Amino acid sequence: MPRIGVFVCWCGSNIAGTVDVSTVSEAVKNEQGVVFSTNYQYMCSQSGQDIIKNAIRKHNLTGIVVCSCSPRMHEATFRKTAAAAGLNPYMVEIANIREQCSWVHKDMLTGTQKAIVLTKAAIAKVNLNSPLTPGESPVTKRALVIGGGIAGIQTALDIADAGFPVDIVETKPTIGGKMAQLDKTFPTLDCAACILTPKMVDAAQNDKIRIYSYSEVEEVNGFVGNFDVKIRRKARYVKEELCTGCGLCTEKCPQKKVPNEFNMGMDNRRAIYIPFAQAVPKVATIDADYCTMLKTGKCGVCSKVCTAGAIDYKQKDEIITERYGAIVAATGFNPISMDKFDEYAYSQSKDVITSLEFERLTNAAGPTAGKLLRPSDGKHPHTVVFVQCVGSRCAAAEKGKEYCSKICCMYTAKHAMLIRDKYPDVEVYVFYIDVRTPGKNFDEFYRRAVEEYGVHYIKGMVGKVSPEGDVLKVQASDLIANKQLHIDADLVVLAAAIEPDKSARSLATMLTASMDTNDFFTEAHPKLRPVESPTAGVFLSGACQGPKDIPETVSQAGAAASKVIGLLAKDKLIGNPCIAHSDEMMCNGCSSCERVCPYGAITYVNKEFRMPDRTTLVRRVASVNEAVCQGCGACTVACPSGAMDLRGFTAQQIMSEVDAICK
Amino acid sequence: MQVSEYKPRIVAFCCNWCSYAGADLAGNNRLNYPAEVKIIRVPCSCRVNPSFVLRAFQRGADGVIICGCHPGDCHYTSGNYYTRRRMAMLFSMLEYLGIEKERTRVEWVSAAEGAKFAATMNDFVETVAALGENKRLEDLRCKR
Amino acid sequence: MHNKDNVTERVLRISGVNARRCMKCGKCSASCPSYDEMEYHPHQFVYMVESGDVEPLLNSRSIYKCLTCFACVDRCPRGVEPVKLVEAIRLEVIREQGANHLRADDVPAKIDEDVPQQLLVSAFRKYAK
Q1: Interface contact B137, partner A, CB < 8 A
Q2: What is the C-alpha separation between A24 and A108, in angstroms, rounded?
């Protein structure tokens, strides 16, 4: 039988001014289970807490109700008090008779009556409380970063800096990501390689960091603190540990006609290649789609020239399994396809390029060695037209993206400025809908492009680009002059919208991390938890969470790292005991709960049941992962058989409160 | 305003993170609302099982209101969306059974909206009081 | 003679266009082949209808310069469909002339399912006088 104590607090005159506290403590004396009832001036004070402790010991109480201020205020206090007296802290209920009673009502009779009802409801609930113990789970002190762009590199460096081992998984043969392809970076115009490559080297040399390049995450199991991850190390047909990166093979390979993806297909590489000079790891990779040896078995030139004996045509994909405490998604972005934008003649003319192609065109290590030359005929262009918002802010989902890609305004200003700086003879037009430059020193940067460099910014859009001979006829509107413009351009650069990398969708499924309609990862709270996924132990870094420039990516990477460090620093995770729990005997394995769970905390297990006729039956039943469940209760309502319940807020408990209130 | 003898019985389910805190704020700011409103704290509005609402009406409640975080602000990301859908279904069924739809309500109250909480409760109690006692679903065996 | 708000409302209703979706990028006008012929350009149609300033459009020759080529509809990033506004204003003018010889009741029987709506509307304009 429950033995319940009721403690009514006066809170000075805060409660006692509108609620007759002694009437309340008197009125509940005969409620079910109540064996002790008292009131005191300040229950939260040391002497008030002593009254509670003594009563628990003296009357052998199994549960207590404190009628006081909001549980948001002192629930923790009274739970500690109970624990100190040897009572399970979850056997405490609070009746909120201050914020929700004495403070909102003026009349003594009304206030007292309501306080009695609230107290009775709390007594009804505590009658059904059961002692709860929070679950504990260990933490594997190793982090996994998926994606080796600037976001992933920075996150890994910061985690390693705190002393925790961290692995980077990168699908390309080298880390570096999109930033490695860029020329200069806004708003300071320092070169991307100069600030990125030292970080890549740091990551490679850090003994806490392991880089799995040319690898993909294959499978993720487990939960916060204990993720078991399978990583596929794709066969690169070169022994990573033997290759010195001398590059001789990449010069001798006879297969010369492979589009170079690092230069956005604007020149060719060999079938065996190192993506760029500062690649990390600096190891050659054979492209199996183009290698003659792998396709026909006849060639073997690279193997002959390699003095290190690193070439291995028989190499196979390898699967490794590792356990991690935390996972960071840093899968980054890609520009969208321009296929649906026929009006800009992207597929008809080589001289219509995207901004990322333009980056390679101005990069000293790019296909033109940094000279601004038209891709079609290698001639110097005299008029360059930039078109902003190509596919950004576009309502038609089959063409573009509804969101603003955020980085285009700034890099277009940068491109325009770089052209005018190197080639003052080139006329540069930028067509914009809005120029969006929030950010430190960003608007000043854009204004410099206009004021110092004389870039023509025109409010309006380009409607059509038609290649005629060797010029591109650009038809556009100038909304401020209210004119239609016809410009003969030599080069047209499209600021293509950016979208999350295609791998993000399958990764999200593996991680049970949620995504928005655009396939960006969703953060746990848009304002207050911006680098955490709602799935415990999964963190977000960089453009996989939303369009971001480099400064923002780096700061988010640091934030994600600090969250990971905070998690890995713990020896064990102590859970919230007020979580869902499934009654195996009642569960019919319908999966309703699994579908509504925002955290992926529910899995199904096949369980053996002893039947009354002494046979055994294997049934599929829901099982809640206590380390992952956050206790929202969505599953409890979805469950058709009533098997799922929420500890601390059971259906019985809430119903008994309802009954007490309606009595 | 005419003071009537009849006092409706209102059960308010408030989610712990937004609406319960909003109710606390109403108290902090000493904003009045009728004492007929009794609040039950739930972790999230999606914890409210339709059977709780039915139980309240069975036991003689005259109105039930469920308060949660604003859409998009749910502490558990999507709980209030579930509430919105479930309650839309439940309320239309209740209306079919003859429980006026004014007796039931889902309202979004953030932790900063103490004033909105008080105003909502004042309005709700007034609306329910105008409808009179709920006799349709009340189980006479449970009558006090 | 016009009730200003009523005309705007009718134009919006006939066209089915939500002019508020426009983000004023001007791609419609950039795409328009008869831009130079027009006094008011496609983006102005959207802006003026949205702000309830339809009167000048009703009296402008611009509505007959539109080729109904649908380039503006195809290229609009927001799905605003400016040409439908032009067409709606044309209709408004014709109704205004009181020259609706075709009785509304006779119409359904005459409609061929396969004929594009736009063509029907143009035919109305031509032959209804």
Answers
A1: no
A2: 12
